[in-house]
């Protein structure tokens, strides 16, 4: 055996031992080491099978060796930069590095572009159409910046604020992302590339400006990815504006032509590179998105950075909750939690314990909490509130199913906090009348936050299409209970909310908004009662399954029952009572809701802050939906059984909480 | 598990738990612990690393874990002459390695 073989020279040929033994073995004979079963053997990856063997190279996948020092035409380099960005954007969309960024072969050869290596790889004949500097200066600069961008994103993603293998793929497959190269060095290399393009004497045709645009865009992306949103909020906006200008210019410009199939640029991307990488699972080659989709993804990332710069100025916990809730409604994902909390401070400088004061002052509309009111400084209360608020803010940027799971899990914690605040308020001597009112109301703050969670949990069941038709009436009935209790608490704390506070502004929105939702839910409850077409036993079992969180044994251990729990018998009574209530008008409920919602579009921003317009659009869409439903549902309860349920469109893509109305067939 | 007790099968059985290096016909080499085979000479290896022969290939290989290599792809099978304990194959009898 040659000395070059892996494993060294201490190997002895035993091929004939296998051949000889095979001749002497019976067909059913199997040799296995002790403790290794046939079942274990079946889990092995079969070499040569393309479905299992990630290393197999089929004939059509063979390609010539890749030489990273091959000189390139300017348009070829432009093509390479665009396609590599498409790979990067595909990784941002949740695919693995192996199937996206690593298919860009220069990633595996960036050290070959180091000056020490270049001397050996210099082409013997220099082609003026293919200036070597395009590779050794321009590509080298942009390549290391490309890797550093991936490295910076990877570092942010690996902080545990998003979920590996769900939201993103962090498996590096033992490939370097230039982790050890200082960002300053990379910035300088990129600047070298820009300088070369600006001043080189070669004729780069029409490609000089497009190449410069791509390098400058990469420079901005590098600065965006390494920026601290809290400290650099104004800088972020400037960078985003500049990036958008360049992106528009690139999209309006001439796209680089597809290179010849035998060119180095065409061979710079190998979708089958996964066969050479260490992966924990077999990975199939992916088709990259079109360049337009890649530019769209980049534009969305820039929008995200602009949003981060705005979020970094939001100091109110109510605003973070409201904005997160709006994003949960739009499905827009943004890694905002790092901006809010860096593991030690809120928004970079605010001690995390200040969240506790904010929790009470903002919810109750107080200007500040007098030092004699000690409730927010009780250690176990502090810890409970901090934990709940941080997770609440984080969940605003979760996807729908995870947010629902999080909210459901937090219900018990909110209940425990409510009980703890009740105990404290009941056993504490108030110093004055104001403190007495305060002490009576602080447990209600926990209840309000819990009711917000409950409302979103039940509504999200519609968005996620969890409910069978027969489960819908219960969901709407339960929502009526939740909204009614919430409105009651708002009325109770109203007198202590100071004028001009954020809570006062929010109250002017939340009271009509919750009332409108209550009207809509009350109407939908009645309208969906005819959907109950299963036996009472089945209904009850479905109820137990859907609201299993309410039957956790921990609730039985609480010293007093929690309000607003789902109770099946109450629902059955409500169904009977509502169908006999001939004064109730489903259509009028929707009309009332429409009127309330249409007035909300001109209310104060309150906690929605810079997202006021987004919230207004939401109110407008809900108002127009109410108008549609008002014109479709019957005026009186007695006509409900004759209503054609097929008129409702339950497609969750149309609206997240209520059905639409099917368009009449043309 | 074998019902056959010929000396050739015993010799093959003695290779179990040894480190094998298997060269297959697409110029890949697998080095792993031999844990089983059958009449068709499918070779079962665990803790296996895959290597490719060629100037630009990763000299450290990549870990592929537990693999089954069908005999149809096998060009050559080798066993590591020095066991993990440092014992030279055939040293106990003072004879040359029985595989050579």
- SSE string of chain A: EHEHEHHHHHHHHHEEHHHHHHHHHHHEE
Question: Could you estimate the helical fraction of the residues of chain A in percent?
Answer: 40-55%
Based on Cα principal axes, name the global outline of chain B: elongated
Number of helices of chain B: 1
Chain pair forming the biggest interface: A-B, 45 and 67 residues
Structural class of chain B: mainly beta
Helix and strand sequence of chain B? HEEEEE
The major beta sheet of chain B can be summarized as:
5 strands, antiparallel
Percent helix of chain B? under 10%
Portion in beta strands of chain B: 35-45%
Number of helices of chain A: 22
- Under CATH at level 1, the class of chain B stands as Mainly Beta
Low-confidence parts of chain A lasting 5 or more residues at pLDDT below 50?
Answer: 329-333
Strand order of the largest sheet of chain B: 4-3-2-1-5
Q: What is the CATH topology descriptor of chain B?
A: SH3 type barrels
The CA-CA distance between the termini of chain A, in Å, is 79 Å
Protein name (chain A): Mak10 subunit, NatC N-terminal acetyltransferase-domain-containing protein
Task: Describe this protein's structure.
- Chain A: This is Mak10 subunit, NatC N-terminal acetyltransferase-domain-containing protein.
- The complex is a heterodimer of chains A (666) and B (100).
- Chain A is mainly alpha-helical and 666 residues long.
- Chain A has three domains: 15-56, no CATH class; 67-304, no CATH class; 314-661, no CATH class.
- Chain A is built from 22 helices and seven strands.
- Chain A has helices spanning 15-24, 38-42, 74-92, 115-121, 133-157, 183-199, 208-226, 233-252, 291-311, 317-330, 337-340, 354-364, 379-395, 400-427, 433-463, 472-493, 502-528, 536-546, 553-557, 568-580, 586-600, 612-632; strands at residues 11-13, 30-32, 45-46, 345-346, 350-351, 648-649, 660-661.
- Chain A has a two-stranded antiparallel ribbon. A two-stranded antiparallel sheet of chain A has the order 6-7.
- In chain A, helix 14 (400-427) packs antiparallel against helix 15 (433-463).
- Residues 329-333 of chain A have low confidence and may be disordered.
- Chain B is mainly beta and 100 residues long.
- Chain B contains one helix and five strands; from the N terminus they run H-E-E-E-E-E.
- In chain B, strand 2 and strand 3 form a beta hairpin.
- Classes of the chains: A mainly alpha (666), B mainly beta (100).
- At the A-B interface, strand 1, helix 1, strand 2 and strand 3 of A face helix 1, strand 1, strand 2, strand 3 and strand 4 of B.
- Strand 2 (30-32) of chain A pairs antiparallel with strand 2 (28-38) of chain B.
């Amino acid at each position: 055996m040659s000395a070059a073989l892996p494993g060294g020279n201490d190997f002895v040929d035993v091929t004939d031992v296998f051949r000889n033994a095979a001749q002497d073995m019976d067909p059913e004979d199997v040799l296995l080491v002790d403790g290794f079963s046939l079942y274990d053997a079946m889990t092995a990856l079969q070499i040569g099978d393309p479905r299992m063997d990630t290393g197999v190279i089929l004939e059509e996948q063979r390609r010539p060796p890749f030489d990273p020092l091959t000189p390139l035409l300017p348009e070829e380099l432009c093509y390479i930069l665009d396609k590599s960005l498409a790979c990067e954007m595909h990784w941002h969309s949740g695919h693995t590095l192996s199937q996206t960024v690593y298919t860009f072969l220069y990633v595996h050869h960036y050290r070959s572009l180091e000056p020490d290596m270049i001397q050996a790889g210099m082409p013997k004949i220099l082609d003026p159409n293919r200036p070597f500097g395009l590779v050794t200066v321009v590509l080298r600069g942009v390549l290391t910046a490309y890797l550093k961008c991936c490295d910076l994103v990877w570092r942010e993603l690996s902080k545990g604020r998003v979920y590996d293998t769900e939201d993103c793929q962090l498996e590096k497959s033992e490939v370097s992302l230039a982790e050890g190269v200082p960002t300053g060095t990379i910035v300088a290399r990129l600047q070298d590339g820009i300088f070369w393009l600006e001043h080189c004497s070669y004729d780069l045709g029409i490609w000089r400006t497009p190449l410069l645009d791509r390098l400058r865009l990469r420079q901005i992306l590098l600065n965006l990815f390494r920026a601290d949103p809290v400290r650099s909020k104004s800088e972020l906006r400037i960078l985003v504006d500049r990036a958008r200008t360049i992106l528009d210019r690139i999209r309006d410009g001439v796209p680089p032509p597809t290179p010849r199939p035998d060119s180095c640029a065409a061979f710079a991307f190998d979708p089958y590179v996964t066969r050479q990488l260490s992966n924990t699972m077999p990975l199939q080659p992916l088709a990259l998105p079109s360049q337009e989709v890649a530019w769209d993804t980049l534009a969305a990332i820039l929008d995200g950075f602009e949003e981060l710069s705005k979020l970094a100025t939001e100091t109110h916990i109510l605003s973070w909750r409201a904005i997160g809730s709006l994003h949960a409604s739009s499905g827009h994902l943004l890694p905002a939690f790092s901006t809010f909390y860096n593991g030690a401070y809120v928004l970079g400088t605010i001690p995390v314990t200040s969240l506790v004061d904010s929790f009470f002052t903002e919810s109750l509309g107080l200007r500040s909490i007098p030092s004699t009111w000690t409730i927010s400084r009780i250690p176990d209360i502090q810890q409970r509130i901090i934990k709940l608020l941080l997770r609440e803010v984080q969940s605003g940027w979760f996807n729908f199913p995870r947010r629902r799971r999080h909210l459901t899990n937090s219900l018990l914690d909110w209940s425990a906090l409510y009980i703890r605040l009740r105990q404290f308020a009941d056993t504490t001597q108030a110093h004055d009348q104001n403190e007495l009112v305060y002490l009576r109301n602080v447990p209600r703050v926990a209840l309000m936050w819990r009711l917000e969670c409950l409302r979103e949990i039940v509504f999200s069941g519609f968005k996620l299409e969890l409910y069978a038709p027969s489960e819908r009436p219960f969901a709407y009935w339960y929502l009526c209970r939740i909204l009614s209790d919430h409105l009651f608490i708002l009325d109770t704390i109203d007198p202590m909310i100071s004028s001009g506070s954020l809570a006062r502004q929010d109250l002017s929105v939340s009271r009509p908004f919750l009332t409108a939702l209550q009207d809509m839910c009350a109407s939908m409850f009645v309208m969906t009662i005819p959907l109950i077409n299963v036996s009472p036993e089945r209904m009850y079992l479905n109820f137990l399954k859907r609201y299993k969180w309410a039957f956790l044994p921990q609730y039985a251990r609480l010293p007093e029952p929690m309000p607003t729990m789902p109770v099946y018998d109450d629902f059955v009574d409500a169904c009977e009572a509502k169908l006999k209530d001939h004064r109730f008008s489903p259509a009028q409920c929707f009309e009332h809701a429409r009127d309330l919602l249409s007035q909300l579009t001109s209310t104060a921003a309150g906690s929605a802050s810079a997202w006021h317009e987004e919230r207004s659009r939401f109110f407008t869409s809900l108002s127009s939906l109410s108008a549609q439903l008002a014109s479709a549902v019957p005026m009186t309860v007695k006509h409900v059984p004759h209503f054609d349920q097929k008129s409702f469109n339950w497609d969750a893509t149309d609206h997240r909480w209520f059905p639409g109305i099917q368009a009449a067939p043309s | 598990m074998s019902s056959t007790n010929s000396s050739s099968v015993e010799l093959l059985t003695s290779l179990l738990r040894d480190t094998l290096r298997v060269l297959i016909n697409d110029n890949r080499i697998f080095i792993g612990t031999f844990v089983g085979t059958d009449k068709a000479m499918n070779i079962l290896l665990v803790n296996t690393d895959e290597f490719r022969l060629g100037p630009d290939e990763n000299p450290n290989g990549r870990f592929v874990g537990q693999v089954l290599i069908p005999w149809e792809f096998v060009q050559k099978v080798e066993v590591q002459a020095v066991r993990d304990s440092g014992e030279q194959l055939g040293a106990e009898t003072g004879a040359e390695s029985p595989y050579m």
